[in-house]
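user: can you give me the structure for this one chain? tokens are fine.
assistant: on it. calling the predictor now.
[tool input]
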Amino acid sequence: MNPYQASERIEKICRLAPVVPVLVVQNPDIAKPLAEALISGGLPVLEVTLRTKSALQVISEMAKVPGAVVGAGTITKSNDIKDAINAGASFAISPGVTDTILEESERHKLAIMPGAATPSEIMRLFQLGYSVQKFFPAEANGGRAALKAIAGPLPNVKFCPTGGINRGNAEGYLELENTLCVGGSWVATQKLIEHRDWHTVNDLANKASKLGSKI
């Protein structure tokens, strides 16, 4: 899968829902009910971050849930690509990116949304063929105002901003023409996950699924 094909695939995934839950899951036993609560709430695209020892197992369990589109997040090294594929991930997301990560994702045909924080990084990735990127950390890098400014000289790059996104500011990002969706953890916080409060997760997912006007 070349960069252009990867970006086409990622854009289709991003357009499935306005919010991509960013999930940090310690216990694989709750992967299924958590995924079900989010999907039934209208958020089928799930980013499972590789920040826990059980993350790959969580991806495997969530990938079995009907309607789930599960991706591996926090890709920081090239080996993560093959691990994500073996676990059943449909796509990958990185906070930043290296040449080896891009090479591995292309070699193993796993669509990746590479992370970028500056115009130079964005331009380099776009030159390589990656027209859909993760803007991270969004709020720390100027937030909505920064993305709006970037759209001027770089109108052909689309983003999924992540980092500091919440229910209060998500709508503002989604109003931007260069924002396809946003990534956020507020729909499934650590507290909600630990308490297995799937009712609240489902309710928050339902509200998040209605954000934005382009989806």
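assistant: here you go. The chain has one domain: 3-208. The longest strand covers residues 19-23.
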